[in-house]
Design a protein that fits this description.
Rossmann fold; globular; binds magnesium ion; binds adenosine monophosphate; DHBP synthase; about 350 residues
């Protein structure tokens, strides 16, 4: 299969690209689309055969459920049943964060095929903010299942070029919408009724932080027991480069092995942080030069990981970032990239 990449920069390019994507999706095919988080591989969420093509292209195991993206936030009722006890809080959350990088797990409607939810009685739903994605979803006027457009377990793509690297020859079309605004996958939550406030459990940390959510309820992070993952797809090893990656908590913990080459994933690239001068790094990427800003680090994270993976070093050494705000989501991805389990 030949994989075409269509630009959306000029108005006439955008129109042609959207028309092509809609034509393929309506015919039950898959198309890679930009979202504000990472690039997604989309298919009509209500067409089981189309969704099966996502799993095949990504080599994704069938136990890992997909997120359903709505054309408009008002379409929530078409795929999910909001339990009575949480109607007010879901209304507030969707008013505040949709369209945007917040995914909510809710009981599913029968029209959502089992392949989308891996047989679970619940469906994960969000509405994307990306202009190109929205034009496609709204023209097609159907919910789209769209996991990240990479091979299963590999680094999420934040550009059309990265999608091409991952899925070339496996999908018919990629729409190029430029770099992704956030660069990390959506925050996934489940919401339960509780007194005096609803309980919001973060199943996957992302761009919407615990701080952002705490006005709407009591917020907790899902426990990360290895044996009993709270979320089926939240496997310990994910987002992984082919090159082994190790997080070094303190510079003094790094003892290079003779003859081995190393690449550095640096947070701020500051000499005074103690990592730069530790070694003659074969390659280095700085996530947010200077003061270190977490949103900038998030945007560059997967790109930097992809570049370092191609540097041909024996190991990637990563500096940790502070585990607060967006740093929680970055460290989540970094730990999964480092995990061999
Ligand atoms: P992505 O691969 O970024 O599309 O994210 C999909 C992830 O959403 C899966 O790997 C699961 O972790 C999570 N997810 C999807 N559906 C459900 C669900 N019904 N219940 C809990 N988590 C879900
Ligand atoms: Mg993914």
């Amino acid at each position: 299969m030949n994989t075409s990449v269509l630009s959306t920069d000029l108005p006439q390019e955008m129109k042609h690209a959207v028309d092509e994507a809609v034509r393929l999706l309506a015919a039950g095919d898959v198309v890679a689309l930009p979202t504000e988080t990472v690039y997604g591989l989309a298919a009509d969420a209500l067409n089981a055969e189309a969704v099966a093509k996502i799993f095949a292209a990504k080599e994704r195991p069938s136990f890992d459920p997909l997120i359903v993206h709505l054309p408009h936030k008002k379409d929530l009722d078409t795929v999910a049943d909001v339990p009575e006890g949480i109607v007010p809080v879901i209304k507030k959350l969707t008013e505040r964060f949709w369209p945007g990088p917040l995914t909510i797990v809710l009981p599913k409607k029968p029209c959502v095929p089992d392949i989308v939810t891996s047989g679970l009685p619940t469906v994960a739903v969000r509405a994307s903010q990306n202009l190109v994605f929205n034009r496609v979803a709204r023209t097609l006027d159907k919910p789209l299942a769209a996991p990240s457009a990479n091979r299963f377990g590999s680094i999420s793509p934040t550009s059309a070029a990265a999608v091409k690297m991952e899925l070339d020859g496996r999908i018919p079309l990629i729409l190029d919408g430029g770099a992704c605004h956030h660069g990390l996958e959506s925050t996934i939550i489940k919401v339960e009724p509780a007194a005096p406030k609803p309980l919001i459990t973060i199943l996957r940390p992302g761009p919407i932080t615990p701080e952002d959510l705490k006005v709407f309820g009591r917020v907790q992070l899902a426990s990360k027991s290895k044996d009993k993952p709270e979320v089926p797809g939240q496997l310990p090893s994910h987002y992984a480069p082919r090159t082994p990656l190790r997080i070094i908590e303190r510079p003094s913990d790094f003892i290079p092995e003779h003859g081995k080459t190393y690449a550095l994933l640096s947070y701020r690239g500051e000499e005074s942080d103690g990592y730069l001068g530790l070694h003659e790094w074969k390659a280095m990427h700085i996530l947010s030069p200077g003061k270190g800003k977490l949103p900038e680090a998030a945007v560059r994270f997967f790109y930097a990981l992809r570049q370092l993976d191609q540097a041909g070093a024996d190991e990637i050494i990563a500096e940790p970032v502070a585990e607060r705000g967006l740093g929680i989501a970055i460290m989540d991805r970094l730990k999964r990239a480092a995990s061999k389990a």
